[in-house]
Design a protein that fits this description.
Elements (H helix, E strand, L loop, with lengths): L1 E10 L2 E11 L4 E5 L6 H9 L6 E6 L2 E2 L5 H7 L1 E3 L12 H17 L5 H21 L15 H14 L4 E5 L10 H13 L4 E5 L3 H7 L2 E6 L2 E6 L1 H6 L1 H15 L4
Helix pairs in contact: 3-4, 3-5, 4-5
The structure holds adenosine-5'-triphosphate.
Protein backbone atom coordinates (compact mmCIF):
# COMPACT_ATOMS: atom_id res chain seq x y z
CA UNK A 1 0.00 0.00 0.00
CA UNK A 2 1.30 3.42 -0.98
CA UNK A 3 0.14 6.28 1.14
CA UNK A 4 0.67 10.02 1.38
CA UNK A 5 -0.18 11.75 4.62
CA UNK A 6 -0.88 15.45 4.71
CA UNK A 7 1.71 15.93 1.96
CA UNK A 8 2.51 19.54 1.06
CA UNK A 9 5.07 21.58 -0.80
CA UNK A 10 5.39 25.30 -0.98
CA UNK A 11 7.25 27.31 -3.61
CA UNK A 12 7.74 30.74 -2.08
CA UNK A 13 4.22 31.90 -1.27
CA UNK A 14 2.55 29.30 -3.50
CA UNK A 15 1.35 25.98 -2.05
CA UNK A 16 1.55 23.64 -5.05
CA UNK A 17 0.48 20.51 -3.15
CA UNK A 18 -1.63 21.23 -0.13
CA UNK A 19 -2.11 18.58 2.55
CA UNK A 20 -2.88 15.62 0.30
CA UNK A 21 -3.71 12.44 2.22
CA UNK A 22 -4.45 9.45 0.05
CA UNK A 23 -3.82 5.68 0.03
CA UNK A 24 -3.34 3.60 -3.11
CA UNK A 25 -4.02 -0.13 -2.88
CA UNK A 26 -2.31 -2.84 -4.93
CA UNK A 27 -4.35 -4.02 -7.90
CA UNK A 28 -5.78 -0.56 -8.46
CA UNK A 29 -5.12 1.95 -11.19
CA UNK A 30 -5.77 5.44 -9.91
CA UNK A 31 -5.93 8.31 -12.37
CA UNK A 32 -4.90 11.70 -11.05
CA UNK A 33 -6.66 14.46 -12.92
CA UNK A 34 -7.11 18.19 -12.57
CA UNK A 35 -6.63 21.42 -14.49
CA UNK A 36 -3.24 22.66 -15.68
CA UNK A 37 -1.12 23.76 -12.77
CA UNK A 38 -3.27 21.81 -10.24
CA UNK A 39 -0.20 20.11 -8.77
CA UNK A 40 -0.42 16.64 -10.36
CA UNK A 41 3.20 16.40 -11.51
CA UNK A 42 4.38 18.05 -8.31
CA UNK A 43 2.47 15.41 -6.31
CA UNK A 44 4.27 12.73 -8.37
CA UNK A 45 7.60 14.44 -7.72
CA UNK A 46 6.92 14.40 -3.99
CA UNK A 47 6.03 10.71 -4.03
CA UNK A 48 9.02 9.65 -6.15
CA UNK A 49 11.42 11.87 -4.21
CA UNK A 50 12.40 14.16 -7.08
CA UNK A 51 11.14 16.96 -4.89
CA UNK A 52 11.44 17.38 -1.14
CA UNK A 53 8.14 17.91 0.70
CA UNK A 54 7.70 20.93 2.94
CA UNK A 55 5.68 18.69 5.27
CA UNK A 56 3.87 15.37 5.37
CA UNK A 57 4.84 11.77 4.69
CA UNK A 58 5.13 9.19 1.92
CA UNK A 59 4.81 5.57 3.05
CA UNK A 60 5.17 2.35 1.08
CA UNK A 61 4.12 -0.88 2.76
CA UNK A 62 4.22 0.94 6.09
CA UNK A 63 7.81 2.13 5.55
CA UNK A 64 8.28 5.86 5.81
CA UNK A 65 10.13 7.04 2.71
CA UNK A 66 9.85 10.74 3.53
CA UNK A 67 13.20 12.46 3.31
CA UNK A 68 14.82 9.58 1.40
CA UNK A 69 16.36 10.31 -2.01
CA UNK A 70 14.67 9.20 -5.23
CA UNK A 71 17.17 6.37 -5.80
CA UNK A 72 16.33 4.80 -2.43
CA UNK A 73 12.62 5.10 -3.13
CA UNK A 74 13.16 3.37 -6.49
CA UNK A 75 14.91 0.49 -4.73
CA UNK A 76 12.04 0.36 -2.26
CA UNK A 77 9.64 -0.30 -5.14
CA UNK A 78 8.48 3.08 -6.42
CA UNK A 79 8.88 3.07 -10.19
CA UNK A 80 8.60 6.20 -12.21
CA UNK A 81 9.23 6.44 -15.96
CA UNK A 82 12.88 7.27 -16.57
CA UNK A 83 13.83 10.50 -18.19
CA UNK A 84 15.67 9.50 -21.31
CA UNK A 85 18.42 11.91 -20.39
CA UNK A 86 19.43 9.26 -17.84
CA UNK A 87 20.21 6.77 -20.58
CA UNK A 88 23.34 5.92 -22.50
CA UNK A 89 22.46 7.55 -25.83
CA UNK A 90 25.19 5.75 -27.81
CA UNK A 91 24.08 2.31 -26.62
CA UNK A 92 21.31 0.41 -28.30
CA UNK A 93 17.74 0.03 -27.08
CA UNK A 94 18.42 -3.55 -26.01
CA UNK A 95 21.64 -2.65 -24.20
CA UNK A 96 19.95 0.11 -22.26
CA UNK A 97 17.10 -2.16 -21.19
CA UNK A 98 19.58 -4.89 -20.28
CA UNK A 99 21.48 -2.47 -18.05
CA UNK A 100 18.23 -1.61 -16.27
CA UNK A 101 17.38 -5.32 -15.89
CA UNK A 102 20.91 -5.96 -14.62
CA UNK A 103 20.77 -3.10 -12.13
CA UNK A 104 17.55 -4.54 -10.69
CA UNK A 105 18.92 -8.07 -10.68
CA UNK A 106 22.25 -7.11 -9.06
CA UNK A 107 20.42 -5.17 -6.40
CA UNK A 108 18.55 -8.34 -5.46
CA UNK A 109 21.01 -11.18 -6.05
CA UNK A 110 24.49 -9.83 -5.67
CA UNK A 111 26.94 -12.69 -5.28
CA UNK A 112 30.66 -13.36 -5.61
CA UNK A 113 32.49 -13.42 -8.93
CA UNK A 114 31.96 -16.74 -10.60
CA UNK A 115 32.46 -16.85 -14.36
CA UNK A 116 29.75 -19.44 -14.94
CA UNK A 117 27.18 -17.43 -13.05
CA UNK A 118 28.25 -14.21 -14.82
CA UNK A 119 27.79 -15.89 -18.21
CA UNK A 120 24.53 -17.54 -17.33
CA UNK A 121 23.20 -14.35 -15.72
CA UNK A 122 24.22 -12.38 -18.80
CA UNK A 123 22.23 -14.72 -21.04
CA UNK A 124 19.17 -14.63 -18.79
CA UNK A 125 19.32 -10.87 -18.45
CA UNK A 126 19.60 -10.44 -22.20
CA UNK A 127 16.61 -12.72 -22.73
CA UNK A 128 14.58 -10.83 -20.16
CA UNK A 129 15.59 -7.48 -21.74
CA UNK A 130 14.66 -8.78 -25.21
CA UNK A 131 11.24 -9.89 -23.93
CA UNK A 132 10.62 -6.42 -22.48
CA UNK A 133 11.77 -4.72 -25.69
CA UNK A 134 9.39 -7.00 -27.60
CA UNK A 135 6.48 -6.21 -25.31
CA UNK A 136 6.77 -2.48 -25.99
CA UNK A 137 6.87 -3.14 -29.74
CA UNK A 138 10.47 -2.01 -30.14
CA UNK A 139 11.86 -5.32 -31.42
CA UNK A 140 12.55 -3.83 -34.84
CA UNK A 141 14.65 -1.12 -33.21
CA UNK A 142 16.43 -3.18 -30.59
CA UNK A 143 19.87 -2.58 -32.10
CA UNK A 144 19.33 1.11 -32.87
CA UNK A 145 21.20 3.65 -30.73
CA UNK A 146 18.80 5.36 -28.34
CA UNK A 147 19.86 8.76 -29.67
CA UNK A 148 18.35 7.89 -33.06
CA UNK A 149 14.85 7.01 -31.79
CA UNK A 150 11.86 9.09 -32.83
CA UNK A 151 9.73 10.55 -30.02
CA UNK A 152 7.10 7.78 -29.91
CA UNK A 153 9.75 5.10 -29.60
CA UNK A 154 11.47 7.05 -26.84
CA UNK A 155 8.23 6.99 -24.86
CA UNK A 156 7.97 3.24 -25.36
CA UNK A 157 11.52 2.85 -24.15
CA UNK A 158 10.69 4.82 -21.02
CA UNK A 159 7.99 2.26 -20.24
CA UNK A 160 10.38 -0.60 -21.05
CA UNK A 161 12.91 0.75 -18.55
CA UNK A 162 10.24 1.09 -15.93
CA UNK A 163 9.17 -2.53 -16.49
CA UNK A 164 12.79 -3.63 -16.18
CA UNK A 165 12.80 -2.29 -12.62
CA UNK A 166 9.86 -4.56 -11.69
CA UNK A 167 8.52 -1.97 -9.27
CA UNK A 168 5.68 -2.41 -6.83
CA UNK A 169 4.23 0.95 -7.83
CA UNK A 170 4.15 2.17 -11.44
CA UNK A 171 3.87 5.91 -11.91
CA UNK A 172 2.96 7.15 -15.38
CA UNK A 173 2.86 10.86 -16.17
CA UNK A 174 0.98 11.33 -19.45
CA UNK A 175 2.54 8.21 -20.96
CA UNK A 176 1.15 8.76 -24.45
CA UNK A 177 1.87 12.51 -24.70
CA UNK A 178 3.23 13.37 -28.11
CA UNK A 179 2.55 9.90 -29.49
CA UNK A 180 0.77 9.33 -32.77
CA UNK A 181 -2.66 7.67 -32.95
CA UNK A 182 -1.01 4.43 -34.07
CA UNK A 183 1.55 4.35 -31.26
CA UNK A 184 -0.54 5.23 -28.20
CA UNK A 185 -2.49 1.92 -28.13
CA UNK A 186 0.76 -0.02 -27.58
CA UNK A 187 1.39 1.84 -24.33
CA UNK A 188 -2.22 1.64 -23.23
CA UNK A 189 -2.25 -2.10 -23.85
CA UNK A 190 0.91 -2.43 -21.74
CA UNK A 191 -0.67 -0.53 -18.89
CA UNK A 192 -3.73 -2.76 -19.21
CA UNK A 193 -1.48 -5.82 -18.89
CA UNK A 194 0.29 -4.39 -15.85
CA UNK A 195 -3.10 -3.77 -14.35
CA UNK A 196 -3.99 -7.43 -14.80
CA UNK A 197 -1.22 -8.18 -12.30
CA UNK A 198 -3.30 -7.56 -9.22
CA UNK A 199 -0.21 -7.09 -7.05
CA UNK A 200 0.81 -3.80 -8.69
CA UNK A 201 -0.27 -0.31 -7.77
CA UNK A 202 -0.55 2.03 -10.74
CA UNK A 203 -0.80 5.82 -10.69
CA UNK A 204 -1.56 7.66 -13.88
CA UNK A 205 -1.53 11.39 -14.47
CA UNK A 206 -3.57 11.83 -17.61
CA UNK A 207 -5.40 14.63 -19.39
CA UNK A 208 -7.14 12.43 -21.95
CA UNK A 209 -10.44 11.53 -20.36
CA UNK A 210 -11.14 8.69 -22.78
CA UNK A 211 -7.95 7.01 -21.54
CA UNK A 212 -8.89 7.70 -17.92
CA UNK A 213 -12.37 6.26 -18.40
CA UNK A 214 -10.99 3.15 -19.97
CA UNK A 215 -8.17 2.38 -17.57
CA UNK A 216 -8.97 3.85 -14.18
CA UNK A 217 -10.53 1.98 -11.28
CA UNK A 218 -10.54 5.17 -9.31
CA UNK A 219 -10.04 8.87 -9.99
CA UNK A 220 -8.70 11.51 -7.66
CA UNK A 221 -8.97 15.16 -8.58
CA UNK A 222 -6.51 17.85 -7.59
CA UNK A 223 -7.36 21.52 -7.82
CA UNK A 224 -5.02 24.20 -6.52
CA UNK A 225 -2.93 21.46 -4.93
CA UNK A 226 -5.84 20.09 -2.92
CA UNK A 227 -7.60 16.75 -3.25
CA UNK A 228 -11.17 17.76 -4.08
CA UNK A 229 -12.72 14.49 -5.27
CA UNK A 230 -11.95 10.79 -4.94
CA UNK A 231 -13.97 7.79 -6.03
CA UNK A 232 -15.13 5.50 -8.81
CA UNK A 233 -14.69 7.03 -12.30
CA UNK A 234 -18.38 7.43 -13.17
CA UNK A 235 -19.14 8.97 -9.81
CA UNK A 236 -16.18 11.38 -9.86
CA UNK A 237 -16.70 12.46 -13.46
CA UNK A 238 -20.36 13.17 -12.72
CA UNK A 239 -19.67 15.03 -9.47
CA UNK A 240 -20.51 18.75 -9.50
CA UNK A 241 -17.04 19.70 -8.25
CA UNK A 242 -15.42 18.03 -11.25
CA UNK A 243 -17.98 19.18 -13.77
CA UNK A 244 -17.58 22.72 -12.56
CA UNK A 245 -13.92 22.96 -11.64
CA UNK A 246 -12.41 20.74 -14.27
CA UNK A 247 -14.38 19.11 -17.01
CA UNK A 248 -16.96 21.81 -17.71
CA UNK A 249 -18.70 21.72 -21.04
CA UNK A 250 -15.53 21.14 -23.02
CA UNK A 251 -15.01 17.60 -21.76
CA UNK A 252 -18.28 16.35 -23.11
CA UNK A 253 -17.80 18.32 -26.31
CA UNK A 254 -14.20 17.49 -27.06
CA UNK A 255 -13.35 14.54 -24.83
CA UNK A 256 -10.43 16.44 -23.36
CA UNK A 257 -10.37 18.88 -20.47
CA UNK A 258 -9.33 22.50 -20.77
N1 LIG B 1 10.00 23.88 -9.09
C1 LIG B 1 8.99 24.73 -9.03
N2 LIG B 1 9.17 26.00 -8.61
C2 LIG B 1 8.14 26.87 -8.53
N3 LIG B 1 6.88 26.57 -8.86
C3 LIG B 1 6.63 25.34 -9.30
C4 LIG B 1 7.67 24.34 -9.41
N4 LIG B 1 7.10 23.20 -9.88
C5 LIG B 1 5.80 23.45 -10.04
N5 LIG B 1 5.51 24.72 -9.71
C6 LIG B 1 4.18 25.34 -9.72
O1 LIG B 1 3.31 24.48 -8.99
C7 LIG B 1 2.04 24.43 -9.60
C8 LIG B 1 1.68 23.00 -9.91
O2 LIG B 1 2.43 22.57 -11.05
P1 LIG B 1 2.33 21.11 -11.66
O3 LIG B 1 3.27 21.04 -12.80
O4 LIG B 1 2.46 20.13 -10.58
O5 LIG B 1 0.83 21.07 -12.18
P2 LIG B 1 0.12 19.97 -13.07
O6 LIG B 1 -1.20 19.72 -12.45
O7 LIG B 1 1.00 18.81 -13.27
O8 LIG B 1 -0.07 20.77 -14.43
P3 LIG B 1 -0.10 20.25 -15.94
O9 LIG B 1 -1.38 19.52 -16.09
O10 LIG B 1 -0.09 21.52 -16.72
O11 LIG B 1 1.11 19.41 -16.17
C9 LIG B 1 2.10 25.34 -10.80
O12 LIG B 1 1.59 26.61 -10.42
C10 LIG B 1 3.56 25.41 -11.12
O13 LIG B 1 3.88 26.62 -11.75
Amino acid sequence: MLETRDLSVRFGGHVAVDGVSCAFAPGTLTAIVGPNGAGKTTYFNLISGQLKASSGQVLLGGRDLSGLPASTRTRAGLGRAFQLTNLFPGLSVLENVRLAVQATHDGRHRRGLNLWSVWSDHRQLTERAAAIVDSVALAARRDAPVSSLPHGDQRKLEVALLMALEPQVYMFDEPTAGMSHDEAPVILELIRKLKADRAKTILLVEHKMDVVRELADRIIVLTNGQLVADGAPAEVIASPVVQQAYLGVRESAAGEPA
